[in-house]
Amino acid sequence: TTKFTSALDIPVQFVEKNVKLRGKLHHITEKGLEVEHIPISIPFITAIQRKWQSKGLLLVRLAGVELAPSGMAWLQQELKPKQMIWFQLLGREDLALECLVLVNKGQFLSVCLNEEILRQGLGRTARIEGLHHDSRLYWKLHKRLLRAELKALKKNKGIWKEESYSERIRDRISNNKFVQILKHFVSWLRRSI
């Protein structure tokens, strides 16, 4: 029932047990998602506690994901301010929380943003900070993230998109030195006439 306003307020046991917390999204920044923690509410006690709860936002980073600039734009388009999200604690680094972020899509469906970004080709898989690299959970999550990234790679999505054959030929022709000299000559001829 406690409202956490700083990453340091969260007990170490919560992080070690990978507890899921609920929050309301406020901002998407270069550093991560700024989320207001929404504690479990108990009708009478919650009303009293609200008077003494301090205000503050938690900095939540997508664990195991290195965002591309297009990934940041996608997040800003996909997530709405004040949207409810769930974040599973995987680690804590200074004032930031490394988490798996889940967003509800419909009544019974939720999407893991970490995987979805990689599936869309809007980022790369990175080391999951906060988890020991020899733990089962680390390798289970890392495998899930790599599979999502592989799907984007196979479908040529996002940062993995390759140029088509005709685009490669066109680029080679336009970058050819002889063609560039010819273009300069033609433009010089037009100016002198």
Automatic annotation (TrEMBL):
Superkingdom, taxonomy of origin: Eukaryota
Record's keyword terms, sorted: Acetylation, Membrane, Transmembrane, Transmembrane helix
Record InterPro entries: C3orf33-like (IPR042421), SNase_OB-fold_sf (IPR035437)
Compartments where found: Membrane
The keyword Ligase is assigned to this record: no
Membrane topology: Single-pass membrane protein
Annotated GO CC locations: extracellular space; membrane
Protein name: CC033 protein
